[in-house]
Amino acid sequence: MSAPTRSRPTRSRFDVDREQLGEVLAGEPRYRIDQVWQGLYEQLRSPAELTTLPKALRTRLDQELPLALEQEVRRISDQGDTVKYLWRLHDGHRIETVLMMYPDRVTVCVSSQAGCAMDCGFCATGQAGFQRHLTSGEIVEQVARAAREARDLGRRLGNVVFMGMGEPLANEAAVWAAIERIHDDLGLSARHLTVSTIGIVPGIRSLAARPLPVNLAVSLHAANDDTRSTLVPMNKRYPISMLMEACADYLAVKGRRISFEWALIEGVNDRDSDAHELAALCRRFRLAAHVNLIPLNPTPGWPTVGSSPRRVREFRDLLERLGVNATVRRNRGTDIDAACGQLAAGQPVRSQPIAIRARGTSGSPR
Ligand code: SAH
């Protein structure tokens, strides 16, 4: 093999499949492939830590299968129960990952793109714009490293949510390849993997055609096209009726409950009329629809404020009375900008936000 080079790696550790690993291990006994694969995915170790391998091989593998994510910052919150990682990619772009430890489960929130092109004004990632898609290896590595950290703390990572930076269904092929690796090799159950989308209808349809029954979460935020198009520009391309058809079809194929995410914004989507509209949309799904409420988190580029805790509870109670399953999501990591919609990876965000106005109200948003 050639001498170690300083040039940028083309294949990172978790981008390599078994066959490619076989190429890297050419000349070694065949069983080395399993040994290394298990080391990476079951033991969550780096090649340097695989003491069953000869020392020279360990060193070579560490060089030829480099990590894709260089840890730049690691911040903790919630007494250590929330960890946010800021990673630097080989080309200088940055992404974030959030590890959340609950009493009964451990969840990692992963990024699928550096930045995001969806341009939702209330989301810090959207405010900073799109840089590039992540490779499947860059996605898998976020999970593997979080799993390792959890294990070192005596916990088992069991859940992955694609709710970090980026729109996973705009990068569906890489996301799917990552899901397969997370399922087949890291051993997580498909039922514990959740893809969250702004509502890219062709992406939902591709996901429906894939074999594993992963959960679908849809960032709905408004139940009429006028409001939703202001909050989520992609709604103009895939309006609510089309989106609901795709959700119904996903449900029919997968039999998995669908979550609707709803960031409550004062005076914009938290009125009684909004709850009624949302309940009407959910009716066709009966108990298979679940609404996740979360008060809007502050971001630098958005003027409106999240609903008060009291209003959030009232909104939930009204939904429940209207027959809709709804829960309020506990906010994690707001103090370290690790909460929903706050991941900007240190990117400057647009300073001139597009102001939106609630329908039927006058006056400017705060
Ligand atoms: N692009 C995908 C994956 C990101 S998930 C998607 O939008 O679903 C991130 C979630 O946080 C989405 O539901 C998003 O709408 C929500 N979000 C964005 N900004 C937020 C904010 N400021 N406060 C609360 N939730 C926010």
TrEMBL record:
Cofactors (names): [4Fe-4S] cluster
Keyword Membrane: no
GO biological process terms on file: rRNA base methylation; tRNA methylation
Molecular-function annotations in GO: 4 iron, 4 sulfur cluster binding; metal ion binding; RNA methyltransferase activity
Main location: cytoplasm
UniProt keyword terms in alphabetical order: 4Fe-4S, Cytoplasm, Iron, Iron-sulfur, Metal-binding, Methyltransferase, rRNA processing, S-adenosyl-L-methionine, Transferase
Localization annotation: Cytoplasm
Domain Radical SAM core residues, every copy: 102-335
One GO CC term, this protein: cytoplasm
CDD domains: Radical_SAM (cd01335)
PANTHER family: 23S RRNA METHYLTRANSFERASE (PTHR30544), RADICAL SAM CORE DOMAIN-CONTAINING PROTEIN (PTHR30544:SF5)
Protein name: Unannotated protein
The species this protein was found in: freshwater metagenome
